[in-house]
Design goal:
By secondary structure, the chain is mainly α. It has one domain (about 10-259). It contains ten helices and no strands. The chain is globular, with a radius of gyration of 18 Å. The model is unreliable at about 105-110 (pLDDT under 50).
Length: about 260
């Protein structure tokens, strides 16, 4: 299998997925207070897409190429990897604690908005780093899956961009600063792709790429269950979240059948 042809497209997919945080920043500029129902739905949709791809496509591919035991080990190694990154971020700075701004608490919280926005940008940047590796590694092995992975990541990066830019905009009144910090957090994904290329290139093989799929599946499942779904439910629209999850799975199921 010649994977060299996929290097540039794989990197571009990782870059587009990461820089979609800038779309969230742009949306935040035009929507003074993003409606929680939209954010809850988009996060649920992204979780559904990522979970379906992980269990229906990526993990089975790993089982086919390497021994079952190793596929399981690699899958949970991916979970452990992103879990260690997650717990390394102090709880106060972790974006899981993001809450919707409202008229009742905006005035009291305004002094802390800048700090919250910057720390959220830092935390999201750390989370985006392995996501960049996920998008790049998946596309390197299977371009079709890479496209789906990049789309799923991009979907949930849009509300992440909003979560960074809104507090910074409220604190500074500068749309330029809000966009800059949100966009900067998304740069971690192409950086993750570059690191993946530099580290993995000398060892590339079909088994390694299949193993990477299993590893990435663990990363995506963890992100979906620990980050996306809890964050979506904090907006208080539980049924909308589930609707997004089911619709995300359905979209991916139909897409995989058609392509």
């Amino acid at each position: 299998m010649d994977v060299t042809e996929n290097i540039v497209p794989a990197f571009l997919l990782a870059a587009v997925a990461g820089l979609s945080t800038g779309i969230g920043s742009t949306v935040a500029h035009f929507i003074r207070k993003p409606k929680p129902v939209y954010l809850a739905f988009s996060l649920g949709l992204s979780a559904g897409v990522m979970i379906y791809i992980s269990f229906v496509e990526m993990l089975p591919a790993a089982f086919e190429a390497i021994k079952d035991v190793w596929a399981v080990v690699i899958f949970f190694a991916g979970i452990a990897f992103i879990g260690l990154i997650d717990i390394s971020i102090p709880q106060a700075e972790n974006p899981h604690d993001y809450t919707v701004l409202s008229g009742d608490n905006a005035t009291a919280a305004k002094q802390s908005f800048m700090r919250t926005g910057l720390l959220t940008a830092l935390a999201i940047g750390i989370h985006n780093f392995p996501e960049g590796l996920a998008a790049f590694g998946t596309a390197l092995s299977d371009m079709r899956l890479g496209i789906f992975t990049a789309v799923a990541i991009a979907i949930h990066n849009i509300p992440e961009g909003i979560s960074v830019s809104v507090p910074i905009f409220y604190a500074t009144g500068s749309r330029r600063k809000a966009f800059f910090y949100s966009f900067l957090s998304g740069l971690a994904e192409p950086v993750g792709a570059c690191l993946g290329l530099l580290v993995l290139w000398p060892f590339l093989s079909e088994k390694l790429l299949a193993s990477l799929l299993g590893f990435v599946a663990g990363i995506m499942v963890y992100i979906s269950l620990d980050e996306l779904l809890p964050s979506a439910h904090r907006f208080g629209h539980g049924h909308i979240v589930i609707l997004g999850v089911v619709l995300g799975m359905l979209i991916m199921a139909v897409s995989l059948l058609l392509i």
